[in-house]
């Protein structure tokens, strides 16, 4: 099942956000909406999952005040969501996030940032540095499509999930368990949520 989902999403690493549904041989455009990032979650929204963590930004973007976002795709519904991991004008290297999602299996799709009036984007893939001549390596065959794999995480309704520290500091993305520190920081903001009893759910 996991491999099927990955194959359906492979074309999303390109600029065109299109999924090829091999069974029906149809093309379907993925639409993205902004995630619910209410500043004062007092409880888990009914029928939703709350996910939270920290985002450690790329070294090359450190100090920039521009917004940085992550795009994820619910592979069950084929609907996309984007959320802010570095707010506009923030110069902090690491920023926390807490968002509400529909239940389902999610693929972490793209990392986006702005510079001036231009938006830049790169795919998020296991063990591959998308900043190191990625498109050139694909065209030359050095990187094969069958080698591409997205990070996945699954959430269920009415649950609170810790997704780890998303380490984008280097070109190779990783996810670190720093739950105790993140829980303590977010508990000050979301006083009624029980972070201590949340599930550790690092993307794999």
Outline the structure in words:
The protein is mostly beta strands and 204 residues long. The protein has one domain. Helix content is 12%, strand content 38%. It has helices at residues 2-9, 134-140, 179-187, and strands spanning 18-21, 26-29, 32-34, 49-56, 68-74, 79-86, 94-101, 104-115, 118-123, 152-155, 159-167, 174-176, 199-200. The model is unreliable at 1-11 and 13-27 (pLDDT under 50).
Which properties best describe this structure?
204 residues; mainly beta; 13 strands; globular; disordered N terminus
Short description:
This protein is mainly beta. The chain is built from 3 helices and 13 strands, in the order H-E-E-E-E-E-E-E-E-E-H-E-E-E-H-E.
Topology:
Elements (H helix, E strand, L loop, with lengths): L1 H8 L8 E4 L4 E4 L2 E3 L14 E8 L11 E7 L4 E8 L7 E8 L2 E12 L2 E6 L10 H7 L11 E4 L3 E9 L6 E3 L2 H9 L11 E2 L4
Parallel strand pairs: 3-6, 4-11, 11-13
Antiparallel strand pairs: 1-2, 4-7, 5-6, 5-8, 8-9, 8-10, 11-12
Number of helix segments?
3
Overall shape: globular
Low-confidence stretches: 1-11, 13-27
Please report the total strand number as a whole number: 13
What is the distance, rounded to the nearest whole angstrom, between the alpha carbons of the first and last residues? Answer: 15 Å
What is the count of distinct domains? Answer: 1
């Amino acid at each position: 099942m996991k491999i099927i989902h990955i194959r359906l999403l492979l074309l999303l690493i390109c600029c065109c956000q299109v999924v090829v549904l091999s069974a029906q041989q149809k093309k379907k455009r993925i639409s993205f909406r902004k995630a619910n990032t209410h500043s004062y979650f007092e409880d888990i929204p009914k029928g939703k999952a709350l996910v939270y963590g920290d985002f450690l930004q790329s070294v090359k973007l450190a100090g920039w005040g521009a917004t940085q976002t992550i795009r994820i795709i619910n592979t069950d519904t084929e609907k996309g969501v984007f959320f802010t991991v570095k707010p506009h004008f923030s110069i902090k290297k690491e920023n926390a996030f807490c968002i509400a999602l529909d239940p389902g299996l999610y693929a972490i799709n793209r990392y986006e940032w702005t510079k001036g009036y231009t938006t830049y984007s790169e795919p998020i893939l296991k063990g591959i540095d998308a900043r190191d001549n990625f498109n050139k390596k694909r065209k030359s065959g050095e990187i094969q499509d069958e080698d591409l794999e997205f990070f996945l995480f699954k959430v269920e309704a009415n649950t609170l999930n810790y997704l780890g520290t998303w380490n984008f500091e280097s070109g190779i993305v990783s996810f670190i368990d720093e739950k105790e520190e993140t829980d303590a920081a977010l508990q000050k903001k979301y006083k009624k949520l029980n972070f201590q009893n949340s599930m550790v759910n690092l993307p794999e």
